[in-house]
Amino acid sequence: MAMELVQPGMRFVQYALLLGLFGGFAFHAMTAHAFARTKDRRNWVIFAAMAAPVAVAFSLATDIAAMVGQSPLDLDGAAVASLVGATDFGRAGIVRVLTVVLAWVPALLFRPSRASSSIAASLYGAALGTLAWSGHAAVGEGFAGWLHRLNDAAHLLAAGLWLGAIGWFALLVLRAHAGSDPERTMALAAALKGFAPVGAALVLVVALTGVVNSQMIFGLGQALPVLSTRYGQLLVVKLGLVALMLLCARSNRSTARSIPDAWNAGPAPDQQALQTMRRTLLVELLLAVAVIAVVAWLGLASPMPGDS
């Protein structure tokens, strides 16, 4: 398989796992005291937690292989150790691998609770933040470089919380729809309404940190020339997908507001509202996956006109 496909492919898997695990555990920690209580680990959580160290380690290997112009299978151990130990990129990668391995303890061995989810979310959040040392922010030096990396980490964490919220609400909608329980449906509607300010804050953080990232990577004054590059075109696609996600979120809020009235009117409108939210949340989740795929390519593209 061509290296130009392996590297972004592994970046996609790594980003998807870390964003999903951080967001899922963080959102569960915030809602475990209320309607989102659960006593078991979902199979996908177990699989994702087990797969994360493998994906993170192999993604690090593919990045190193691309830097030295070799296949990941042909890497020399001594050269890899030297590169990892001598660069911030390599040290961040080792921290990322160790952190996701350590996260197995709260993610898989502890009983599901607010405490275990908080610990797991903290570890996966730390691993997610280290990705700022593997993209465009990694090339910055001095105070500006640290500011760029911290901004990039904040961007990733806010995106992870957004993704976690989508996943949890999708799960809760499926539960409410399967159980046909009016009280559970009302609790879901109340949760969606209550999340609206948090969701708005997350979108604001994602937007502001995204603008800062763009300024520090290519300069907003150079936006038009950048649009002629693959980086610029991918960025436009990403922004379009995020805009569609915002439309889905707005639709969900509108549907949630209608649930109490629909419930008073009878069970049929209530179920229709749940079906609408289920479809919209699924679309929003698929759009989020598409955004992650674009980001995986975006981090490898150059914003400079004339570069490949």
UniProtKB/TrEMBL annotation:
Transmembrane helix as UniProt keyword: yes
Pfam families the record matches: CopD
One record GO biological process: copper ion transport
Cell compartment(s), UniProt: Cell membrane
Transmembrane annotation, as ranges: 12-32, 44-69, 89-110, 122-147, 153-174, 186-211, 231-249, 281-300
Membrane topology recorded in Swiss-Prot or TrEMBL: Multi-pass membrane protein
The UniProt record lists the keyword Transmembrane: yes
Domain Copper resistance protein D: 190-298
Any one of the GO CC terms: plasma membrane
UniProt keyword list: Cell membrane, Membrane, Transmembrane, Transmembrane helix
Domain of life: Bacteria
InterPro entries in the cross-refs: CopC/D (IPR032694), CopD (IPR047689), Cu-R_CopD_dom (IPR008457)
Protein name: Copper homeostasis membrane protein CopD
Species of the source: Sphingomonas ursincola
